[in-house]
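Notes from the 1:1 (GR / supervisor)

We went over the backlog. Supervisor wanted to see one worked example end to end before approving the batch request, so GR pasted a single chain during the call. The sequence is below; no edits were made to it. Supervisor asked that the structure be written out right there so they could see what the output format looks like.
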Amino acid sequence: MNSGATAGQFTNFTLYQDVNNNGIIDPSDLNVQTGISIVAGNVTFSGLSEGLNSTTNTKYYLVTCNVSASATVNGTIRATISNPPVSVLVNSPAQVNTGGPFNGNTMTIRASGTATKLVIKKITPFTAITGDPC
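Structure output shown during the call:
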């Protein structure tokens, strides 16, 4: 946390397995552990046992949390695995990447605003619009 963000502004951390690896939580994703709070600046997901096999040799995970309505605007939060205390049981042949730190993206708290309504009446032929939507 940085830029004025405090631990009390973030609650209910949840770990999801991103089953389809699309980076979005959707119905196919698995809730691995929920309801975790920040203690001494850290969030710990413990007691996990995630297996891999030859057809699913990679798993992707997402971490979410609730942000207080009174959270500091422009405050930031970032997930980091600094020294992974991970136990790995390997049946050869396999490759295990170890080390760290592993850093997530820095997320910035923005002031809430009014949503913009988008109405699509007809798309023929398909047209792609590019550019910054903000």
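Supervisor's comment: The chain has a mean pLDDT of 74.
Batch request approved.
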